[in-house]
Amino acid sequence: xxxxxxxxxxxxxLPDLGDGVGLREPHFAHLMGTDPAAWGVDWFEIVSxxxxxxxxxxxxxxxxxxAHRPVVMxxxxxxxxxxxxxDMLYLDKLAAxxxxxxxxxxxxxxxxxxxxxxxxxDLLPMPLTEASLAHVTGRVKAVQDRxxxxxxxxxPSTYLQFAGAQMPEWDYLGRLAEAADCGLLLDVNNVHVSAxxxxxxxxxxxxxxxAERIVQIHLAGPRDCGTHLLDTHDSPVxxxxxxxxxxxxxxxxxxxxxxEWDADIxxxxxxxxxxxxxxxxxxxxxAYA
Amino acid sequence: MPEALAELQAWMxxxxxxxxxxxxxxxxxxxxxxxxGAEGRLAIYAGGYRTRxxxxxxxxxxxxxLLVGGTVFxxxxxxxxxxxxxxxxxxxxxxxxxxxxxxxxxxxxxxxPLAALPAAVARLERARSEVQRAAGTERHRGPVLMxxxxxxxxxxxxxxxxxRLLRLDFDLLPLIEAxxxxxxxxxxxxxxxxxxxxxxxxxxxQHRLEPWRHAWLEAxxxxxxxxxxxxxxxxxxxGREGGALLADVILWLPTAAxxxxxxxxxxxx
Lengths: 289, 269
Known about the structure:
The structure holds two protein chains of two kinds.
Chain A: E1 19-22, H1 28-32, E2 43-47, H2 57-68, E3 71-74, H3 88-101, E4 106-109, E5 112-115, E6 118-124, H4 130-147, E7 151-154, H5 169-180, E8 183-187, H6 188-198, H7 202-208, E9 214-219, E10 223-224, E11 229-230, H8 239-252, E12 256-259, H9 268-283
Parallel strand pairs in A: 1-2, 1-12, 2-3, 3-4, 4-7, 7-8, 8-9, 9-12
Antiparallel strand pairs in A: 5-6, 10-11
Helix pairs in contact in A: 4-5, 6-8, 7-8
Chain B: H1 3-17, H2 38-60, H3 62-68, H4 70-83, H5 98-104, H6 117-133, E1 156-158, E2 163-171, H7 173-181, E3 189-200, E4 203-208, H8 211-220, E5 225-226, H9 227-238, H10 242-258, E6 263-264
Helix pairs in contact in B: 1-2, 2-4, 3-4, 3-6, 3-7, 5-6, 8-9, 9-10
């Protein structure tokens, strides 16, 4: 059952921005030296932390990009699932950046990054229990109150699951989204990675999510490490991931697409060529409903 | 705070920081299957943690890596990672303590004067990183500082956030230039080196300074100071006669401003 709340508008009422890429330093020179009309993308996503406390060239580039295209702020440090108190200083900085960039939305991950003052700088998995769900729901509401907008949460790639799980991740995400009235960023590559690593059905995962709360889709390429897949963002999107993308676009009726590429970053034109495949896969989508 | 969640997360983070070597109780809490056991799954996170921090330090300290080579650099970095788990939400903050760590862990005996070199290089490279990200002078639209600006009564000047003044025991500029241009390592010569790292037009540069210029900028500081007062302080520190130093400041001021070293105090970033 894809649509679980008929009263919730598609994408929480947020726009379908089209096809975008991550704003990354290797492409700054190209973007600054090219007419925005020739940028070849509908929107950009930034990693929020790359611009917090920044007053240098990167911010200068971001100002130009934001003047010509919608921008989404995608964070990695919110640590929404941590047992320690929310970092209000971080939230203040996030809010200040949002006031400057005026993003279409702000996203982060369903994860925790640290505890007791120590930070792993990784997206660590949540125990999928009723207690942690209640804990995260309260924190999402608090963040939304502080930012004055819905938070969009992404499913991370995971490499371990805690014993004693009381529900699968798709149930956890769907219930969280509805209880906290937040949105979902569906990373179809992460679904593929986690499905391989834990042995679940990726298509069933996507099918089970509340489609109306999916605001955005992430695409990326993983690395095959033999015993597991690693979410590396350093290669083209795999065929099975494109199939999941097509499924998700059909279920949602169309949401913003973002191609992530964070290591071994190719030239801008090559990035656009990979992104162009998204349209081809959408147009190949069968009637799904 | 939910105690069970806090306990679980502390266990897992302990396991990650220990490199999976002593994960203790957390292993019993991790589901495993025939393909990958609990220890192997935790090791993926432990390995990713070290790799991420190591790559961050490699990116932030390229000149030090060029100087000492990849193997030695990684020994330095792994020592730092083991002693200093990240505590800030931004990875850009992580290298802030690297120079102090290298200084504190240098061999107590032997090594000669070059034993202090890694910390000095790290200090300069950290300053460059900070200047790169700081609020600079590019967006300011204050008055252009001319030579005669220094004679305006009560004029206060300050150092923008994008300036770092350093007093180093080596001439590191040839090494930095080699690192930036992809050249071969240059072993720095020992000797006092007064440096300002500053940004202009979004480009970070290092400037060798004569003692009186370094002293004058230091006297102005980020809080700002009145030109004549800073000249008097610089004269005392450098041993120069005040009137001559003031004349040199007047002549140097337009250049200093164009290099992003000083701004009118009310426009400091």
